[in-house]
Amino acid sequence: MKYILLLMLIVLVSCQKLEYSKDMYEEGSVTYLSFTPQRTEYYPYMDSEGNVSLVYRIIPEEYIIGFSCEHGGFKISEQKAKELFYNFRVGDEVIITYRQVDAVKVENDKEVERHFYDWDFVTAKKLDRNGPKEQ
User: Fold this and answer.
1) Interval 40-44 mean pLDDT
2) Cα(109)–Cα(107) distance, integer angstroms
3) Is 79 helix (H, G, I), strand (E, B) or coil?
């Protein structure tokens, strides 16, 4: 019960919202690719009566991609990484699409404070320097 009250207090005191900028673009490169297939882990379990049994847990597959760019980089995982994973190799040059996230403090429907919160990765596409040229 006290955790619920604490959570409610935090929500009431915190009048911040996150705002996203328009999409921005930056050249970068792929620095890291990792895939871990789904696996099952088994381990012994002893109940209160001393009976031992074997229990298991299924660990889902995991995709991770690392990108570096001028302002730092991104490390993405889960569904977004799974969608992009097979499009890249380490060292590929890419165009990264991202957004700036600002934390905005609002009081009485007026913005009183804004500060940088994070970068939000949107997507990446392979950069083809040998592609079509202007005439």
Assistant:
1) 93
2) 5
3) helix
Tokens 């009250």, residue? 5
Summarised one tens digit per residue, pLDDT across range 6-19 is: 555 455 445 678 89
Which of the 8 DSSP states describes residue 64? E
pLDDT above 70 coverage of the chain, percent: 85
Question: Residue 41 has which token pair?
Answer: 């882990």
Residue with tokens 């996203």: 20
Please count the other Cβ atoms lying within 10 Å of the Cβ belonging to residue 8: 10
Look up residue 60 and give its DSSP letter: P
Q: What is the CA radius of gyration of the chain?
A: 23
The predicted pLDDT at position 9 comes to 46
Question: DSSP H helical segments within the chain, as ranges?
Answer: 2-13, 78-84
CA quadruple 107, 113, 114, 118: dihedral, nearest 10: -80
